[in-house]
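Final report, closing paragraph on structural work. Over the funding period we assembled a curated collection of sequence-structure pairs, and we close with a single example.
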Amino acid sequence: MGPAPTEMRTLWRGIVRTIFWSYERMTWQYDVMVAVIVLFVLATPRHWFHDQPPSTTIDNTRIELVSEDAGSHTRIYRLEADALPPAQRAAKSTPELERQTHDILGRTVGDLQGRTFQVVRIDPALAGDGSVQYYDVTVHP
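Its predicted structure, as stored:
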């Protein structure tokens, strides 16, 4: 035989109160819910929460997603200047720099590998001595 209607009603009321968090403080039910939440936060693997922008490393050079604009369907990746040979580091955008950054991003960024994308803009960030520290590369996937 199944549970009695009053037992089902009590069980259902407990589920509803738990979902809507309607237990008062200093009750054992409240304490159990708080303990479950704390255990979840402490026991959950860090990679479940994608709170850091994805980054890729090639030859000790970081490439990270700086921002993403859903409206214009563009992404900005920060590419350290060390990813390019010193002779190819330019303080302004050139067709050669565009090709090089396109090749590096296409090889290393998982979301761009094997896909067609366009480098829309390259913004070099210069150090005090005039050397390039990194490039902010805007792409349109």
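Residues 88 and 97 are 7 Å apart (CA to CA). The radius of gyration is 26 Å. We thank the funder for supporting this effort.
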